[in-house]
Amino acid sequence: MAGEERQQQQQQDRRAAATIVTSTGKSGSSVAFTFDDGPDPTHTPAMLDVLKKHGVKAVFCLWGDHVRQYPNLVKRIADEGHVLCNHSMSHSDMGGWSAAQVRSDLEATNALIQQAAPGARIAYFRAPYGSWGQAGDVAEQLGMTPLGWRMDIQDWTPPGAGELARRLRDGITPGAVVLMHDGGGDRSQTVQAVDTVIPEFKANGWSFDLPAGG
Ligand SMILES: [Zn+2]
Fold it and tell me: What is the DSSP code string of 44-93?
């Protein structure tokens, strides 16, 4: 490719680059909880019970292979007023995929989600491992907001429910989108930590909101 052509291509790439949302976009003490890699037959219902108990709505980033296994849980998530997010079919690193490959995966995942929860809106897409490549642009073309995060409590290790609660308490910043997990492993500590911190956050004046663009 000639130098000038390459420059034009780079400019085009820059123009096309999607904005990855990492905050609620609201002023004041709002926070958005997001849960990845479910649905899980044990931990997703437990998380839904906790969120219902505290009257909090969250975003669930769904792994297509798990949607196929547990479609009723996707329906429950939607029926209880939470917001759906496409998290790809098989949790592959899409960083090096062509736009066409990404589109085919995202469309297939959306079709599965829509089959499980007819009529439910899929507001967001989150790239596995935060490895975006072409996926942000493709998600926007398909009407989904590319969703990142500002705060990762690293609940996949997992370090104990008390430690997770401490990380949430100490690390929270106004508007933060918080990455947590309800699937892909034993998430009981995450469920417990969320149950602990929601009343604390509310008592301290925090409100629970959705990430921007939802
Ligand atoms: Zn994930």
Answer: HHHHHHHHHHHT---EEEE-HHHHHH-HHHHHHHHHTT-EEEE--SS---
CATH number of the domain encompassing residue 182: 3.20.20.370
Domain assignment present for residue 6? The answer is no
Considering its fold, how many domains does the chain have in total? 1
For residue 63, how far is its CA from the centre of ligand 1 (angstroms)? 7
User: Residue 4 domain-assigned?
Assistant: no
Mean pLDDT of the chain: 94
How far is the centre of ligand 1, averaged over its atoms, from the C-alpha of 87 (Å)? 7
Amino acid at 93: D
CA atoms within 13 A of residue 145's CA, in its CB half-sphere: 18
Gap between the Cα atoms of 112 and 72, Å rounded: 12
What average pLDDT does range 77-98 have in this prediction? 98
In a domain, 57, yes or no: yes
